[in-house]
Specification:
Strand content: 5-15%
Largest sheet: 7 strands, mixed
Family: Belongs to the transketolase family. DXPS subfamily.
Radius of gyration: 28 Å
Cofactor: thiamine diphosphate; Mg(2+)
Strand order of the largest sheet: 7-6-8-9-11-10-16
Subunit structure: Homodimer.
EC number: 2.2.1.7
Distance between the termini: 36 Å
Enzyme class: transferase
Shape: globular
Helix content: 25-40%
Number of helices: 24
Number of strands: 18
Length: 638
């Protein structure tokens, strides 16, 4: 059955019996393919019937379908003709793990950060209304906690204020917050709420009764309150209808007949409608059902039958942070941990188990987390906010004006910094060094290995009057790289035979830097490798050391523009130091998904290319310059 589906139009002639068979095939397809490549399995197993119903009732791409979050779009990709590309899911040259405009006209949003789609839907549906495209609908599928984000509620507030747009909001409730309400009465009430006659009757009743002297208003309010009270017993629509949104549901998201009926009513209503759908995350895959913590939200390469990971067991940077947080939590009662719906992925789940009263998960609300942390710091606590580096972008204003301006001692732990790989442009953590670099008083550490992560975390927790950040990459932690010596906080990792080049290695770039220095030595160039550990502000000792060298090379895995090399260059100018400086880092581009190692090779960030560059630069450098590192081997950009 699945092989016959090349576009949403192929769904139209199928019977419900055939659609049930198709749903089972899609689930088995997802389990087989995602187990080989890794990806978001649980969320997509839960939206099979929901996505089929959407594409049966609405006409994509004429009708715009938006997913929030985007990782629940695999079934959408299958139904829009991309099933034959799933062997390359999240792989170089293959399809992305999120919607991607380059892949299909059925995809609109590429940014996979949560809680944004309702604002997209508001803008697109408003645009259709303004341009008189009244025959086009917009469908926003909101799930996996996206409604915990503040942007969602800002959008809902604006959506509810309009009554002339074809906008359907589907809340994919897969957290079992409510039990499905199934039966004749629920279906009848749902039908009434999207029937024009019902609305006209209410408007007529309000107009007549409110004009009746003395008793009119009380009677209307009583009757309206009774109606609302009865509906609230049946279904949890109160807060949405209080906003002014028409509510339908809850609907069993795995009942195709019920789903199509509800979506048809919502489509025909002609005003914004919210359809509340109950689904089961991980449905159809027993290992996912039994995973109580995350329902196989995201998996690596696993056994398709058992769900057992097949990759080599390694110690990750996240594991090291998790262990050290437990240690400092035991030692200091003032340490509190915050995250934005990422307890497991950031390693704070173990801290929560041991210190539940000192662990706060705010949902997908990074802005709130940062300002709340400032409040916690005001009371004498030391908050540690653990988020993926890319998600700090969302809370820049709060970091600048609520934390830094107020001299709040808050520590940010930025997991997945630098090039992350599989999840693509919106998930690379390449912006944090540039963003944090313009925060007054902020101190940023980039540990090169596990020992330095433990060390810098503890140093950060001693700072009570300014924000601090610790950044580290995704994946397995590197073997410890000991220093020959430490000069005023700066570690010397490799001593050159001559004072030709000072190679400043930032964080996890240390192993590549040391290997590049070793290769350059064989070419007769003396390279000394140093690791500042704390990279913002630039250590004074680094400037002192640089005076001895012909040139300085900075190796970082953040964007070069406004990165560490830029900061060092500014520091040199202010100190009157005329030393040539070269930057090796990430170009200011959006980089597509690939393995981290593949992307770094594309960018020329490997020991062989760097050593060649160092040798070439050393032979030509005569005076202060700041040339672009052209990354001539680069092939991966957008």
């Amino acid at each position: 059955m699945l092989e016959t589906i090349k576009s949403p139009a192929d769904l139209q002639g199928l019977s419900y019996e055939q659609l049930t068979e198709l749903s089972a095939e899609i689930r088995q397809f997802l389990i087989t393919k995602v187990s080989k490549t890794g990806g978001h399995l649980g969320p997509n197993l839960g939206v099979v019937e929901l996505t089929i119903a959407i594409h049966r009732i609405f006409d994509s791409p004429k009708d715009v379908v938006l997913f929030d979050t985007g990782h629940q779009s695999y079934v959408h990709k299958i139904l829009t003709g991309r099933a034959d590309r799933f062997d390359g899911l999240r792989q170089r040259g293959g399809i992305a793990g999120y919607p991607n405009r380059a892949e299909s006209e059925h995809d609109v949003i590429e940014n996979s950060h949560a809680s944004t789609a309702l604002s997209w839907g508001d803008g697109i549906s408003r645009g259709f209304a303004i341009t008189n495209q009244i025959d086009r609908s917009v469908v926003v599928v909101v799930g996996d906690g996206a409604l915990t984000g503040g942007m969602s509620w800002e959008a809902l507030n604006n959506i509810a204020a309009s009554n002339d747009r074809n906008l359907v909001v589907i809340v994919n409730d897969n957290e079992r917050s409510y039990s499905p309400t199934i039966g004749g009465l629920a279906t009848y009430l749902a039908t009434l709420r999207v029937t024009r006659g019902y609305e006209k009757f209410l408007d007529w009743g309000k107009e007549v009764l409110t004009k009746t002297p003395v008793v009119g208003n009380p009677i209307y309010e009583t009757l309206h309150g009774m109606k609302k009270g009865i509906k609230d017993i049946i279904a949890p629509q109160g807060m949405f209808e209080d906003l002014g949104l028409k509510y339908v549901g809850p609907i069993d998201g795995h009942d195709l007949v019920a789903m199509e009926r509800a979506l048809t009513q919502a489509k025909e209503f002609g005003q914004p409608v919210l359809v509340h759908v109950i689904t089961e995350k991980g449905k159809g895959h027993q290992p996912a059902i039994e995973d109580q913590a995350e329902k196989f939200h995201a998996v690596g390469v696993v056994d398709p039958e058992t769900g057992t990971p097949l990759g080599k067991s390694t110690t990750s940077w996240t594991n090291i942070f998790s262990e050290e947080m437990l240690a400092v939590g035991d030692e200091r009662e003032d340490i509190v941990a915050l995250t934005a719906a990422m307890l497991g992925p950031t390693g704070l789940d173990k801290f929560q188990e041991k210190f539940p009263m000192r662990t706060i998960d705010v949902g997908i609300a990074e802005q709130h987390a940062v300002t709340s942390a400032a409040g916690l710091a005001f009371t004498g606590l030391h908050p540690v906010i653990a988020v993926y580096s890319t998600f700090l972008n969302r809370a820049f204003d709060q970091l600048l004006l609520d934390v830094a301006l107020h001299k709040a001692g808050v520590t940010f732990v930025l997991d997945r910094s630098g090039v992350t790989g599989d999840d693509g442009p919106s998930h690379h953590g390449i912006w944090d060094l540039a963003l944090t670099g313009i925060i007054p008083t902020m101190r940023v550490a980039a540990p090169r290995d596990a020992s330095r992560l433990r060390e810098t975390l503890r140093e950060a927790l001693e700072v009570s009057d300014a924000p601090t950040a610790i950044r580290f990459p995704k994946g397995a932690v590197t073997k410890d790289i000991p220093a020959f010596e430490r000069r005023d906080g700066v570690d010397v990792l490799y001593r050159g035979e001559s004072a030709d080049v000072l190679l400043v290695s930032i964080g996890a770039m240390a192993a590549i830097a040391v290997e590049a220095a070793s290769q350059a030595y064989r070419e007769g160039v003396g390279v000394t490798v140093i690791d500042p550990r704390w990279v913002k502000p630039i250590p004074e000792s680094l400037i002192t050391m640089a005076r001895r060298y012909k040139s300085v090379v900075v190796l970082e895995d953040g964007i070069k523009r406004a990165g560490i090399a830029s900061s060092i260059s500014e520091a040199f100018r202010e100190a009157g130091l005329n030393v040539a400086i070269h930057s090796i880092g990430i170009p200011l581009e959006f980089i597509e998904h690939s393995k981290r190692s593949e992307i770094l090779d594309d960018l020329g960030i490997n020991a062989q290319k760097i050593s060649r560059d160092i040798v070439a630069w050393n032979s030509t450098v005569e005076e202060m310059q700041f040339p672009e590192h052209e990354n001539v081997d680069r092939t991966q950009n957008r």
